[in-house]
Structures are given as structure tokens and as C-alpha cells.
């Protein structure tokens, strides 16, 4: 994947996060700022998702810890084979909000 594709994939992921949170009525604030997307919950806890351009990775930080995802076979996957979308669903649940990401 080249740098242009990397940024396109990240933007698609971030658009999807915003859309799915909105469509499922999640009580969260989703904010983009530079290379960071933040999901803020009612208790002010946050999930922080950022793009690591130098490594072509997507990073996720939440109450469950930090995870790094690389683009493999048309999906964001970490070194243990966990999909980003599954990890994000689990992270939201740990912050008290049920959102199913695809």
C-alpha cells in the first residue's frame, strides 16, 4: 500500500466510525483533529485512534490498552489476527457503549 492508499483507507474507516456511531444512536462525541480521531463517552473517558503514517499503521488506545493494526487482505488487522473493527466494538463496550462496527 502506498501513502495515498493509506490515507484513503484511514479516511474511509473514520467516516465509517462516525456513521455507525450516529446510525446506532451511540451517546458519544466523535471528533477528528489532524491525524487523530477521538471517541468521547459520557464519563469523559476516551478511545483514541490515530494514524501512524511512517509505519502505515492504525493505532487504537482505550481502557483495554493499545493496539496496532496494519492493512492486510483488505482489512486492518493486528499481529494476533484481531480485526480493528472487532477491537473497536470491544473497546466501546469496555467504555459502557454498545456499538457494532463492521
Automatic annotation (TrEMBL):
Entry-linked CDD domains: Frataxin
SUPFAM superfamilies: Frataxin/Nqo15-like
GO MF term (any one): ferrous iron binding
Pfam families found in the cross-reference section: Frataxin_Cyay
Superkingdom of origin organism: Bacteria
Assigned keywords, A-Z: Iron, Metal-binding
A cellular-component GO term for this protein: cytosol
GO BP: iron-sulfur cluster assembly
Similarity comment: Belongs to the frataxin family.
NCBIfam families for the chain: FeS_CyaY
Described function: Involved in iron-sulfur (Fe-S) cluster assembly. May act as a regulator of Fe-S biogenesis.
Protein name: Iron-sulfur cluster assembly protein CyaY
Source organism of the structure: [Actinobacillus] rossii
Gene: cyaY
